[in-house]
Write a structure and sequence with these properties.
The complex is a heterodimer of chains A (about 325) and B (about 350). With about 325 residues, chain A is mainly α. Chain A has 14 helices and 2 strands, in the order H-H-H-H-H-H-H-E-E-H-H-H-H-H-H-H. Classes of the chains: A mainly alpha (about 325), B alpha+beta (about 350). At the A-B interface, helix 9 and helix 10 of A face strand 6 and helix 5 of B.
């Protein structure tokens, strides 16, 4: 086939008249498409592949949880979730979440604010420390607290006997820590450790991206530091804050590893819902286990719905990786 | 309020942003801080505002050392380059912000705050837009809101950081005129930073030119344009042709002839002659420098002719009224002579 080149030296996409007339074989016309788009078959393959993976490893197990939970009928389901220990587990989970989330809110906002609006020595170390809970296995996290506050731990004397001393202004003082391991404080500590990065990491890129101009403007107009924080910084991060709180709550409710190590599994007292599921499963009460698990799955679904809603309505107010 | 800046220096690591700046801003004047990027002009403005601290030197507000005043207490209205409007507040709340954060005796009653906001909205010609949010405004409108917000607190000085940098040419021209009128009406001491020399010359009462952290010249736009204090200023403010020249027996010689234009001072040895394109006149063979046209470009009301001087082979640019269009085709030979010029020693 004779090659006919255009003036620019590029071979034409459409076949030249010579090629059509001189060749007996039909010439394929190149389909006009974007340079950055894959061909149809590749697109279909990728999408189907991703969907199949999601179906097999996420959707199916989730569905199975609900199916198994209702296997014995709705009556059995209701009985399983309203049983005393189950209710205690639910209450404890909610209590722990109710303590952990506000604490992490405080720490997270303070850390993100310090890192993104200020320069100080050791800033990089702080950022690395904030990410530490992601790198550490939850079981190890729980073990850390056992090693510190457990019966053979460093801080045990402070818990067992306390510390008595004389302070300059206060006179005779007795300090005693409450029981931490195998009790609520331990569970709270372990959960705080594991969920700490969520809010901070959600806020840091957004606050860095927003810069300090608005804060400087507020200061130049006469606002104090505190006023600037309340009236300028906080409103600018409110949706990202909500998003972070959502992630933090979801993780706090579902945390197993770290809590399992510090809780002692005392039925009715130190069992959170995830721990309760494990106990039921170990006692071969499968239906009841799935019933409890379905509560967790439900909270996960609610989280997902709220998260998607936030991304949809307030996407521009979130960090760049949440915008679609 | 008058501002006096004494021996101000600031370094960022090894980089000297400001080097021994001495400057006095008179009460009620509109002063431009002009310079290329990195010249320190924004740093200087921010130090005056209290948003940054100098390493050495002092800033005096009406004779009082400003270092004793916090950012909030200085009452310096600052307008940022990218406006820095509070995105979650509407226009009226943005303008009222500085008044609403006041506490105690200084705090105005709500009615007075609202009246002030209305007054400012009409001053900046944004009546009726009080309920809009910054995201719903155009660039020029946002700029005016930023200005109104800074004026609301009745500042002693107004500081503007490249106020029109982010706007397109037509809006910039309109706002320039508008800012000048506003300044004439309020009589407020105003400093603005710009890298646009046309803007500085058009707007300001006086221009302070900074380069590499140093103050190169302080003067009226006319003085800075007609009597630049350094070669840098010649080239930065307006355009200039630089030609090699030589002092001989008390007269400056260029292109093989003594320079006809009036020159300040006398020098010795090698020098450079600086002539602005509009100061090169087309002359006759007897008195001019011969040159050959290389290109000509019609630009609005002006004709720019690029030529090469025959004697020194230096390229020159000549600016003529547009009525000369076509009179100097490429390759044509012409003679030019400087009506006005300056000189600086070479090296």
């Amino acid at each position: 086939m004779s090659e006919v080149l255009l003036e620019s030296g590029i071979p034409p996409m459409i076949p030249s008249p010579h090629a059509v007339l001189s060749d007996s074989a039909p010439v394929r016309v190149a389909q006009a498409r974007d340079a950055t788009t894959e061909p149809r078959w590749a697109q279909a393959l990728l999408i189907l592949g991703a969907l199949a993976f999601l179906l097999a490893f996420l959707l199916l197990p989730l569905l199975l949880v609900f199916v198994e939970a209702l296997r014995g009928g709705v009556g059995a389901f209701v009985q399983a979730v309203s049983e005393t220990d189950a209710l205690a587990a639910v209450k404890l989970t909610l209590l722990v979440t109710g303590i952990v989330v506000p604490l992490n809110l405080l720490f997270g906002v303070a850390a993100a604010w310090a890192v993104s609006k200020h320069q100080f020595p050791g800033k990089r170390w702080l950022v690395t420390l904030i990410d530490l809970p992601f790198a550490v296995s939850p079981v190890v996290a729980g073990l850390i607290f056992v090693l510190i506050f457990g019966a053979q731990g460093w801080a045990w004397p402070l818990i067992d006997e306390g510390w008595t001393g004389t302070l300059p202004l206060l006179g005779e003082v007795h300090v005693q820590l409450p029981k931490i391991i195998f009790a609520l404080p331990g569970i709270v500590l372990a959960t705080v450790f594991v969920t700490f990065p969520f809010i901070a990491r959600e806020l840091m890129p957004l606050m860095e991206q927003q810069g300090t101009d608005e804060e400087l403007a507020a200061l130049s107009l006469g606002a104090s530091g505190w006023q600037t924080f309340w009236r300028v910084t906080l409103p600018n991060i409110r949706w990202a804050l909500l998003y972070g709180v959502l992630l933090c709550s979801a993780r706090a409710m579902g945390e197993f590893g770290a809590v399992s190590v510090v809780s002692g599994h005392i039925r009715g007292r130190t069992n959170t819902l995830p721990l309760h599921v494990e106990i039921l499963y170990n006692e071969y009460a499968y239906s009841a286990a799935f019933a409890a698990a379905s509560l967790l799955a439900l909270s996960a679904l609610i989280t997902l719905v709220l998260k998607t809603y936030l991304e949809w309505r307030h996407g521009e107010s979130l960090a760049a990786n949440h915008r679609h | 309020m008058s501002i006096v800046i004494e021996h101000l220096s600031k370094r960022f690591g090894a980089f000297a942003a400001l080097d021994d700046i001495q400057l006095e801003v008179k009460q009620g004047e509109l002063l431009a801080l002009l310079g290329p990027s990195g010249s320190g002009k924004t740093t200087l403005l921010r130090i005056i505002a209290g948003l940054e601290h100098a390493d050495t030197g002092r800033v005096l507000f009406d004779g009082e050392d400003a270092a004793r005043l916090s950012v909030q207490a200085r009452r310096a209205g600052f307008v940022f380059q990218h406006y820095a409007l509070f995105r979650h507040l509407n226009v009226a709340d943005n303008i009222a912000f500085g008044l609403r954060v006041r506490r105690g005796a200084e705090r105005w009653p709500d009615s007075r705050i609202r009246a002030r906001v209305e007054e400012l909205l009409s001053l900046v010609q944004l009546e009726g837009l009080g309920g809009r949010y910054p995201a719903q405004l155009s660039g020029g409108q946002r700029q005016r809101v930023a200005l109104a917000r800074a004026l609301a607190i009745e500042p002693r000085v107004l500081l503007l950081d490249e106020p029109f940098g982010a706007l397109d040419a037509q809006v910039r021209r309109d706002l320039r005129r508008w800012l000048r009128e506003l300044h004439d009406r309020t009589g407020l001491t105003t400093l603005f930073v710009t890298h646009d020399q046309e803007e500085a010359l058009e707007l300001a009462d006086r221009v302070a030119i900074l380069n590499g952290g140093k103050l190169e010249q302080l003067g009226t736009p006319a003085a800075v344009y007609d009597q630049p204090a350094s070669p840098f200023i010649y080239g930065f403010v307006g355009e200039v042709n630089r030609l090699p020249a030589q002092w001989r027996d008390g007269r400056l010689h260029a292109e093989g002839q003594p320079v006809t234009a009036e020159l300040a001072g006398v020098g010795q040895g090698a020098a450079h002659l600086y002539v602005r394109p509009e100061d090169l006149r087309v002359s006759d063979e007897a008195s001019g420098w011969p040159a050959r046209v290389v290109a000509e470009q019609r630009s609005g009301p002006r004709l720019r002719v690029r030529a090469v001087l025959e004697q020194s082979q230096s390229p020159v640019e000549v600016e003529l009224p547009a009525s000369n269009d076509g009179a100097f085709p490429v390759g044509a030979r012409l003679h030019v002579a400087p009506a006005r010029a300056g000189w600086f020693p070479a090296g």
